[in-house]
Amino acid sequence: MNNAAVFLPGAVDDVTPEVWDRTLDVNLKGPFFAAQAIGRRMREAGGGCIVNIASQGSLQPFTRHIPYSVSKAGIVMLTRLLALALAPSVRVNAVAPGTIIVPGEEEGTPAKPPADTIPFKRYGTPEDVAEAVIYLARAEYVTGVVLPVDGGATTG
Fold first, then answer.
1. Which of 11, 49, 69, 72 sits in a 20 to 30 Å window from 23, CA-based?
2. What is the 3-class SS of 84-121, one letter each residue?
3. Structural domain contains residue 50
């Protein structure tokens, strides 16, 4: 599982080169080079599976977090490209979580959309994301897929 991210604020008038570079380095450059290294080893071993973590922000623009959305949209394309480049022995998929709340994070920053705006009327949990990752890790005939885990938030 390739799970790397920083979630730095950055609206169009506020993004600095430092915020842009840090976000793209952590969220996109790191996952690419990690996948390159492990993909090579997986092919030598006869197969494997990589699951990248994208984001709801890769499917819907987060206007107050432009570098983040761009980096996670890059993860979507990276997933598709790696799925083709590493096939047939290595499968590459991604999960795109929506608002996920870990215990103790119910209040505070970053601001969360109201739960009643999500079709499932609740925030996701780490277990919701883990179930999707496990599914993609086991799905032997699935590659290049981005699976939203967002309670239906990106369907409308």
1. 49
2. HHHCCCEEEEEEEECCECCCCCCCCCCCCCCHHHCCCC
3. yes
12-38 pLDDT tens trace: 999 999 999 999 999 999 999 999 999
CATH of the domain at 111: 3.40.50.720
Of the residues 68, 123, 135, 141, which is catalytic? 68
Does 68 qualify as catalytic in the annotation?
Answer: yes
Domain tally for the chain? 1
Asked if 82 and 50 count as a contact pair (C-beta separation under 8 A), the reply is yes
What's the chain's average pLDDT? Answer: 94
Q: What is the pLDDT of residue 81?
A: 98
Residue 2 counted as domain residue: no
